[in-house]
Amino acid sequence: MDKLAVNALDWTGTSLRVLDQRILPEQSKYDEFVDAAGVAEAIASMRVRGAPAIGIAAAYGVALSVRQHYCSDGDSWIDKVKHDMQLLASSRPTAVNLFTALTAMNTVLEESIADPVTEAMAKAEQIHADDIKANYTMGELGADLMVGAKGVLTHCNTGALATGGYGTALGVVRTAYHRQPLAIYAGETRPWLQGARLTVWELQQEKIPATLIADSAAAWLMKSGQIDWVVVGADRIAANGDTANKIGTYSLAVLAKQHGVKFMVVAPLTTIDWAIASGAEITIEERNANEVLPACYQHDASVIRAWNPVFDVTPAELISAIVTEQGVVLNPALQNGVRSLKKC
Ligand code: MRU
Predict the structure, then answer these.
(1) Are residues 106 and 196 in the same domain?
(2) Tell me, what CATH number does 36's domain have?
(3) Angstrom distance (rounded) from CA 157 to CA 170
(4) Site described as Transition state stabilizer, positions (predicted)?
(5) Is residue 2 in some structural domain?
(6) How many whole angstroms from 73 Cα to the centroid of ligand 1?
(7) What is the CATH number of the domain that holds 265?
(8) Last residue in a domain, options 69, 101, 133
């Protein structure tokens, strides 16, 4: 495995260091957290963001909670840890990876184990390592679909910063770029600018040329014929293949259909929510209006307000391929969604 150029999360064994993505690319600064409350705040405030990275951070948050309470709180340690898990669960609503990770950590703690501290830490480390491994596999599988492609447009940030390392959609873009000449376009991703601030920064670290576009330039770019694939990540995929991802993804899928451009979703199995039949059941996070409003309107909502949903749902029928570490589902709307990937 290549040495990772960028690490969103750095686990020290006694703390979690989180690269503050709110201030990238101007500043590269890690904040250190020693308890679950700190990690929950780091997720809610988007110091760390991106569905897989949120899940991994939450797993380490549970490990920190067990470490804090097991030795000092007697028999009530598990109640304290459960309380911390609730705190972590309430940090952001849409990415199912958060809940998948918390369930996995809970399962470890509920099994009768000799050394909860060591085993919780080991489980969190395993969740992190599994995610990196899945990303490399998806990189190959997604790039296999892109043979002959000359141009790709990606949205938001789905790279090392959003995952355990390497990335989902951006991992596919990286792998494809190393195989063939590829023009890479990144949408700036308003309002939080994950594309403009994070994706192009990651690519610059690796000297991979990329072109940044305003989100509103996507239709015209597709019309120019330069884009063969739109490649995006996901925060939650329903069993029928409907996919929640960063606001603007649905617009890109509609545009892709209009222009005959193929549309790929890349996400690990931890992003699939088997419990929901369709995207209609996905909670869409709405964040503070001030992320959208110019400063001069922020103190008086009597006339000008803002609506700030930060995800949308792309229906399965607009998706050409869903790529996971376990395999690819082509045209999920014609294949019973992603159900063929369910282990049992
Ligand atoms: O609000 P964010 O930045 O956490 O949203 C991130 C996305 O929408 C990503 O596309 C998604 O989490 C996949 S990251 C591999």
Answers:
(1) no
(2) 1.20.120.420
(3) 7
(4) 156
(5) no
(6) 36
(7) 3.40.50.10470
(8) 133
Atom of ligand 1 nearest to the CA of 311: 8
Which of 9, 154, 156, 170 to mutate to test ligand 1, by most ligand atoms within 8 A of the CB atom?
156
CB 164 within 8 A of CB 1: no
Q: Given pLDDT bands bounded at 50, 70 and 90, which one contains residue 71?
A: confident
Closest CA to 262 of 163, 150, 186: 150
The residue written with tokens 């459960």 in the block is 82
Is the pLDDT at 316 greater than 70? The verdict is yes
Distance 311 CA to ligand 1 centre (A): 9
Average pLDDT over residues 320-324: 98
Sign of CA dihedral 245, 248, 251, 257: negative
For residue 235, indicate whether it is catalytic: yes
List 235, 242, 273, 312, catalytic entry: 235
- Which H or E run includes 324? strand 321-324
**Whether residues 166 and 307 fall in one domain:** yes
pLDDT at 290 over 80: yes
In the beta sheet, which residues pair with residue 314? 243
Q: Which of 133, 149, 164 is the last residue of a domain?
A: 133
Q: Establish if 314 belongs to a structural domain.
A: yes
Has residue 124 got a pLDDT over 60?
yes
Domain count of the chain? 2
The closest alpha carbon to 175, from 196, 197, 195, 154, belongs to 154
Does the residue 106 lie in any domain?
yes
- Burial (CB < 10 A; 0-12, 13-18, 19+), residue 86, is exposed
Average pLDDT over residues 188-194: 98
Domain co-membership, 148 together with 275: yes
